[in-house]
Design goal:
It is built from 7 helices and 5 strands; from the N terminus they run βαβααβαβααβα. By secondary structure, the chain is α/β, with parallel strands linked by helices. The chain has a 5-stranded parallel sheet. Strand 3, helix 4 and strand 4 form a beta-alpha-beta unit. The radius of gyration is 17 Å and the shape is globular.
């Protein structure tokens, strides 16, 4: 797969080595990159015996809020920390409130230098403060991601529009 290099197979939590790379996938022109991590990195990582968690950002925040209300936030954080790779899909599609932003920040902060992290988004770094409801929090997240990160931008036409039945681009 194209994104095979983004996960270092020699990574071992026992050796206390940080993951080699974080990956930020940014879509443009209505192109959605989530097929890349869901198929490419997830398949490669699992073939290497690594555990991968694929999470939609908004759904994760809902889980975090529920865990906080139930007094089980530490349990959820510990569960997420067990994965070798976290794939956070659709970051920024739904803006978060301040509590949601802080809870998500904690997940991203906890993963820093201990897990590989893949984020798909259509939001550039400069606008992450709007998504997380806090400019300083967004800056701290961006700082951690770019430290060991790679940025991959997807351009071109949307696959869904290109293959659209409604627009006459596909025959039934």
């Amino acid at each position: 797969m194209v994104l095979r290099y983004t996960y270092r197979s020699q990574y071992s939590k026992d050796k206390q080595e940080p993951p080699e790379i974080n990956t930020l996938l940014i879509k443009s022109n209505a192109r959605h990159p989530n097929h890349a991590p869901s198929r490419g990195q997830r398949c490669f990582a699992t073939q290497e015996g690594k555990t991968v968690r694929f999470l939609q950002a908004a759904q994760l925040v809902l889980q975090l809020k529920t865990a906080m209300e139930q007094g089980k936030l530490d349990v959820l954080y510990a569960d997420l920390a067990k994965a070798d790779m976290l794939i956070l899909d659709e970051f920024g599609y739904i803006p978060l409130d301040a509590d949601g932003g802080r809870l998500l920040f904690q997940v991203l902060s906890n993963s820093y230098e201990s897990q590989s992290l893949v984020i798909t988004t259509n939001i550039e770094f400069g606008k992450w403060g709007t998504v997380l409801a806090d400019e300083k929090l967004a800056s701290a997240v961006a700082d951690r991601i770019v430290h060991h990160g790679r940025l991959i931008e997807f351009g071109g036409k949307s696959r869904r529009v290109t293959d659209s039945l409604m627009l006459g681009n596909r025959k039934e």
